[in-house]
Write a structure and sequence with these properties.
By secondary structure, the chain is mainly β. It is built from no helices and 16 strands. A hairpin with a 5-residue loop joins strand 15 and strand 16. It starts with a strand and ends in an 8-residue tail after the last strand.
């Protein structure tokens, strides 16, 4: 019976390229692989049998295929099929993996840009989203240490931070599992000396 192994992407991989070159190997020790039986199916599409590069290796072929159209953001399933020259079909090979090409979104509702306040604590509030994975959010105050933030399952987060007197730069950074980043910066002034109106 012929065997086949998908070598890239691997199962549960996270890749940042939405047109990856998919590679797999097909082998048969007895009658050999019927080249015309080699096929690949991407998600719920039709079986593709053209455009596959087949390089002879011992006992079979190393196959590669680059999809002409981008794969989905998020989960993708690839299946491969082949048969030997006696007509025996291989067990279908399958991998599920994720594509992430888009940086996380980051919306900051508070504080407002240019806020002047006489309160030393300011609340950073916002939401992030990510089609593939929840993003990790950190806050940097005046380029100091990362302040960890807990992101809810709905993507919302809130964190109180303590300002220094005068000008403050608050950077909110969302990083997804593919290491793509989005940063929002807010400048806030703490003025405890003068009255603040409004």
């Amino acid at each position: 019976t012929p065997t086949q192994t998908i070598t890239y992407p691997t199962n549960d991989a996270l890749i940042t390229n939405n047109k990856p070159t998919i590679t797999w190997e097909v082998k048969d020790a007895a009658s050999g692989i019927n080249q015309n039986s080699i096929g690949i199916t991407i998600n719920s599409g039709a079986k593709i049998q053209t455009g596959i590069t087949k390089t002879p290796i011992e006992g079979g072929y190393r196959c590669s295929y680059t999809p002409p159209t981008p794969l989905n953001e998020g989960n993708n399933v690839i299946k491969v099929d082949c048969a030997d020259n006696d007509g025996n079909a291989a067990t279908q090979g399958s991998v599920t993996f994720k594509v992430d090409t888009v940086p996380p979104t980051l919306n900051i509702s508070s504080p407002a840009e240019g806020l002047v306040t006489n309160k030393s604590t300011v609340t950073v509030k916002g939401t992030t989203n990510d089609a593939t994975h929840h993003s990790l959010v950190v806050i940097k105050l005046n380029d100091g240490e990362d302040i960890a933030v807990t992101v809810g399952s709905d993507g919302a987060f809130t964190k109180d931070i303590t300002l220094v007197e005068g000008d403050n730069t608050i950077k909110i950074i969302a990083t997804d599992s593919a290491k793509k980043q989005t940063t929002v910066t807010r400048k806030v002034k703490l003025d405890t000396k003068a009255p603040v109106f409004g």
